């Protein structure tokens, strides 16, 4: 990459905001992040067509991981397994097995008063994913402590 190193925190926050129907790209030269709705989405407009053409025309842009690459279910599972408190660990792992696992998981972490711990854990997982993605794509980066 020719531009300045990207901040891991910026990539992690972009990953945190990943949603179905949208793709995120990093301009390797400028470090700018851009969003593009998937084709056929009702949000698609002429500006998106221009950006899409620019992305496809060269190798300046690289696509960030999508929600399937991120696998938030696995992050919740890893958090649950990391807990020393047995009841919390068991209840959270059981919540992930039933209907509406995301809703049940979030209800339980709120009831146990450990939501802040989970969201800190989740953010660190996004930072790890961002570092790995940068390494895999040859993107120089800096962390807050760099």
List the helices and strands and how they pair.
Elements: E1 6-7, H1 8-16, E2 22-27, E3 33-37, H2 46-57, E4 61-63, H3 67-70, H4 72-82, H5 86-95, H6 101-112, H7 115-137, E5 141-142
Helix pairs in contact: 1-7, 4-5, 4-7, 5-6
Radius of gyration: 18 Å
| Largest sheet: spatial strand order | 3-2-4
List SSEs in N-to-C order. Answer: EHEEHEHHHHHE
Low-confidence runs of at least 5 consecutive residues: none
Average of the residue pLDDT scores? 88
Quickly count the helices: 7
Largest sheet: 3 strands, antiparallel
**What share of residues are in beta strands?**
5-15%
How many beta-strand segments? 5
Helix content: 55-70%
Task: Note the gap between the termini.
Answer: 18 Å
Secondary-structure-based class equals alpha+beta
Number of domains: 2
- The geometry reads as elongated
Protein described:
By secondary structure, the chain is an alpha+beta fold. It folds into two domains: 6-67 and 130-139, no CATH class; 69-124, no CATH class. 55% of the residues lie in helices and 12% in strands. It has a three-stranded antiparallel β-sheet, with helices on one face. A two-stranded parallel sheet has the order 1-5. A hairpin with a 5-residue loop joins strand 2 and strand 3 (33-37). The model has no long low-confidence stretch (mean pLDDT 88).
